[in-house]
């Protein structure tokens, strides 16, 4: 893998509807591919809240109003599908990853056909920097729901962290096939191509990403890196200036200003 002193890999884990997150992901180190902790949690939480109840031939997890007595009895036996998901998200937000994993371990036993629960546990393993366990769980989620573009993006990011680039590219290709408007697919694939030194392909994906979401800051910074490697410094400067204009995080703005100082 080539070493890019400029390029910061901004990863996205967004829902299959293709919407960007409410807050931009933090820049993460291009060499270590660190996890995207809070952003991943927000994405899965939205998916759990938005998703239809999960059903299989043997189980139905549709929730109905329950009396206080029923709720007490239920807590003594098990949490429902959605209760377990929400409880795990709450625990992970508080940094109690081991307890969140414990909650989900029981939940996936009770609801073994729930791709959402495996995807959520994958994200929490990722937050806890357990990449291998995260990869195992997101792979199960994909087996259960191979049509989720966001799951393929999530697994691609894990493959990248393990430098398994061909598998990452395959997952990103599948995500884009499933959801042609999914910004995360083009963004991550374009950044992957940049790290592999495939600048023209990287530029194509980042152009697509910017065309589909012109108000999202991160792709401009990564495209600037690609343009500079292609000898197009003035266009790269324009992209960094646009990045600074759009970024709503002061750390991002400082990164952009520092880069301009090196180039101008």
Topology at a glance:
Layout: H1 37-50, H2 68-77, H3 81-93, H4 97-110, H5 115-127, H6 131-144, H7 149-161, H8 165-178, H9 183-195, H10 199-212, H11 218-229, H12 233-246, H13 250-263
Q: What's this, in brief?
A:
By secondary structure, the chain is an all-alpha fold. The protein has 13 helices and no strands.
Major sheet details:
none
Q: Mean of residue pLDDT?
A: 78
Q: Which shape, going by the Cα principal axes?
A: elongated
In sequence order, what are the helices and strands, one letter per element?
Answer: HHHHHHHHHHHHH
Helix content: 55-70%
Number of helices: 13
Strand portion, in percent? under 5%
Q: Termini distance? A: 28 Å
Q: Which runs of at least 5 residues are low in confidence (pLDDT < 50)?
A: 1-64, 71-75
* Class from secondary-structure proportions: mainly alpha
Give me the count of strands.
0
Radius of gyration using CA atoms only: 20 Å
